[in-house]
Amino acid sequence: MKILYFGALRERIGRGSESITLPQDIKSAHDLKHFLIAQDTRYQHALDGPHTVCVAIDQEHAQWEDSIEHATEVAFFPPVTGG
Fold first, then answer.
1. Domain map of the chain by residue range?
2. How many CB atoms lie within 10 A of CB 80?
3. Which of 34, 46, 60, 76 sits 20 to 30 Å CA-CA off 12?
4. Comparing 30 with 83, which gets the higher pLDDT?
């Protein structure tokens, strides 16, 4: 699966994307986030801080509980604000 990181998340993790093979028990965006956090402290600092992180699955805004079982791409990004 391709994982994309945008904005400050990209800076904290140190890369804009990566391809990984997920364990079969990773079923949702929430599961993926916690799987990554367990891998390296860079992910913990980027994805598990006091800031808000949004997720997209196959280029569609998604909820954390949404399934990623048939997805080819998941993106993590900071919330978009307007003004």
1. 2-77
2. 9
3. 60
4. 30
